Please model this.
Amino acid sequence: MKGRAESIIQKLASEFINRESNRTSLITVTQVEYDDRTRATSIFISTYPEKDTRGAVEFLNRNRDEFRDYIKKHSRLARLPRVLFQADPVLGGSQKEVIEPTP
Model:
């Protein structure tokens, strides 16, 4: 179930980003980590140009509620996960710099 949920969330995140972004930078969903036990999902992204990563992560985390609504509307997942967008540390995001969402 975990692999299936990750695949669904990755596809929906890509669609949502394509629909909602202003297209000044290319945002790619590189990985999704879903924890069945806590229902928490980390969605890792990379951007081109790389300098736009921080802004993209902040934008996506501000729109987490809209993304959860998008998941609810476009999937049949039994439980909606808590979502956190993060810069992919392997593809340009700093491993030491975690961009926390603002409340």
About this structure: Strands lie at 26-35, 40-48, 82-87.
